[in-house]
Amino acid sequence: MMGTILRVNLSTGLITTESADLYREWIGGLGVAEKILYDEVKPWVTPYDPANRLIVCTGALSGTFCPGTGRIVTVTKSPVTMGIASGNAGGSFGANLRYAGFEYIVVEGRSAKPVYLYIKDGNAEIKSAYAITGYTVDKAVDWLEETHGTEISTMCIGTAGEQVVRFACVTVDRYRIIGKCGFGAVMGSKNLKAVVADGSEGSVSVDDVMGFKRKVDEIYGRFDGNEAYKNLMSYGTLCCVPSKYRVGGFSYRHGQNLHISEDMLDTYDPAMICGKYTLRQTSCRGCLVGCQNRHRIPDGPYAGLEMEGAPFNSILNFGTKLDIADYGFCIQATWLCNNLGMDMDVIAEILGWVMECYEKGLITSDQLDGLELHFGNQEAALKLIEKIAGRDGVGSILAEGVARASTVFSSKTSYYGIHVKGNELFELVRPLIGYGLGALTSTRGGSHVLGSPVCEAGIFSETEKEAALRKFKVHTFNDPVAYEGKPEIVMYYEDISRACGCLGLCLMVSDWQQIQMMDMEDFSDFLRLAAGVELTPEEFKVRMQAILNLEKMFNYCHAGYTRKDDRPRERLFREPVRSGPAKGLALDREKWEKMMDHYYEIHGWDKETGLPTAETLANCGLAELIPDLGRPAQAPGRAYCQEEPVPGED
């Protein structure tokens, strides 16, 4: 069931393999990878230390014909948060890695020269990457495909990763991104330019072929006629525009408001965008949804650019947040980030923060190497993106992220930065309480994919309401501004997201995306049919809670994170939304803290510290971690300063 671990030491060049059966209780994928990281990377090891591990893994269903199994999972110690980093991307890499003979790759050490890892037919080889050093992702992948054939799958860093930009990402199969957390920086610190999986001639078998096929047919049947998926298949994630507008969910001018004008809304109308820019919908391997858009810019200053991606996030990041009403620019900026190898959510938060501070007189043009970073300045924004990727001038300061950069500029700039645990916060909190709770408590810092519910902004049929009530056991699942009941919903999706990580599934085919799609019962069925492993849905949940508790303990031991590091930034309590559906909303401190108390209680965590109790660790099979509760964090330095000066209170 568990497969084979490929171990690569870049310092010595030693390559070995071993069975993953010792990690059977961790299901596969994310669970196994995080257990390896916890056991092998000690708290005093820094993210760029050769002793840090970069772990790449498939899931228990990767490479099968179950829909949505095109994901790859990565785990490391994050240079952004100093805590645990988990990442996930689509494409074909996961299937190709299994077809090539491996379920897990554990990389340690640092090569003296630029290299890439080539994997095929149960073998692996460390090869010279001199020919592609300094290349952007597109150019590097072109060379790799010319060398090894177009059927390969690739994980590749761009120039930002080579320059060890702290939040550099990894690009998978040209257009899929392992973002947040700085995976590209860790690869760059190891002198590892790329990983190539050549598994075009392999296959993956399942334990019960006919039962597996019947289960797959059942899942396909749930998609038929589902209106939410019709929209997703037609427009990709751009279909989220109307629902976000309805609840006041657009960050405008770096969140100074959460409402946009009707003219700007028309600019980002999904039907208009797809009619003008979209060539076709595309999908990851084995997916029936096809949530990606293949775009081509037909006119204007960016005419001719063609790329896959530019999802709904691109509008929020490079459109409304920067006060730019031009989808062509959103495509251009997204392509630039992907090709240079940087997380666009992080870059957009940096740009928005700089623009706001620039207009408030807290950062000057001289400090920005002569750039005039006012809202709406497309040319300056693109130049700054390139400067950050190359660590050129002020770009080297901003390449450390907002939390660290704010310590270099005026101390007053810190208040305007939106981040948690040092990781830039893309997610809005004020109009979507549960979504914000999931992002703020996320163990990787500032991330909605480890527990944030998207159902708050949804419109439910009566059948869907019944399903939601049965699963969440609370009535506030589609009340975006309610505080009550949100901890239960977040906890539910914490389990769902980790189960997807263990199985190699995309969240888009789970009930994270739509309430009647795959849930714990389905996951249990698929695990039994694919691998012969019998776990009830409740037993599955216990294992997912074990993974979450392992993550919490890693963060405590490595970075000292406790309850105070799950809190929102001060400006979210102080600044009400100015207009639109969420007008007047600011976080209610008393309600938020009460909600947090309940969140910790239902997890079995101490309300004061936010840490698992000894009893909770024992109950989920982690009794060996209990001694770590009494050990102070041995981190080499906090990721950021929690205290933030408030304007007018100097």
What are the salient characteristics of this protein?
single chain, 650 residues, alpha+beta, Aldehyde Ferredoxin Oxidoreductase,  A, domain 1, Aldehyde Ferredoxin Oxidoreductase Protein, subunit A, domain 2, Aldehyde Ferredoxin Oxidoreductase Protein, subunit A, domain 3, 17 strands
Evaluate the radius of gyration. Answer: 23 Å
Spans of at least 5 consecutive residues with low confidence: none
| Coarse morphology | globular
Number of separate helices: 24
Helix content: 25-40%
Summed up, the domain count is 3
CATH topology of the largest domain: Aldehyde Ferredoxin Oxidoreductase Protein, subunit A, domain 3
Q: What's the overall average pLDDT, rounded?
A: 94
What's the CATH H-level superfamily name of the largest domain? Aldehyde Ferredoxin Oxidoreductase Protein, subunit A, domain 3
User: At the first level of CATH, what is the class of the largest domain?
Assistant: Mainly Alpha
Tally of strands: 17
Amount of beta strand? 5-15%
Give the CA-CA distance, first to last residue.
60 Å
Largest sheet: 6 strands, mixed
